[in-house]
Amino acid sequence: MRTFLQDVRFAFRQFANHTGFALTAVLSLALGVGATVSVFSIVYAVLMNPWPYIGADRICTLSLLDKAGNEDSWGITGPQIRQLRQAHSVEGVMGVNEWNLTVTGGDVPEDVRGNYLTPNGFQFLGLPAMLGRYFLPTDAPDGQEPQQVVVLSHKFWQRHFNGDPSVVGKPIHLVHKTYTILGVMPPRFTWEDGDVFLPLNLSGAPTVTFGVYLKLKPGVTQAAAAAELTPLIQQFAKETPNHFPKQYAVAVRNISYYYKHQLGGTLALLFGAVGLLLAIGCGNVSILLLARGTARQHEFAVRSAVGASGFRLIRQLLTESLILAVAGAGLGVVLAYRSLGWIVTALPEYSFPHEADFHVNVAVLVFSVGLALLTGLLFGLFPALQMARPEISQVMQSNTRKVAGTVRGKHFHTVLIAGQIALTLLLMTAAGAAIQGFVHMMHIPLGYDPHNVMSVGIPIHENTYKTLVERVNYYERLRNSIAGSPDVISAGISTNATPPNNGWDQPFELLGKPSAEEQKARLNFVDPGYFTTLHMPLQKGRVWDHTELVHAAPLVLVNESFAKRYYPSGDVIGHSLKVPTLKDEPPYTLAAPGSDGPLQIVGVVADALDDGLDKPVKPAIFLPYSLYMWMHTQILVESRGDPQAILHSIRRLIVSVDADQQAFGRTDDLETWIRREPEMARGRLVSILFGAFSVLALVLAAVGLYSVVSYSVVQRTNEFGIRMALGARKKDVLWNVLASAGVSVGSGLLAGLAISLALNRVISRWVENGTHDPWLILGVSAVLLAVAGLACLLPSWRASSVDPMTALRCE
Question: 212 and 118 in contact (C-beta within 8 Å)?
Answer without folding.
Answer: no
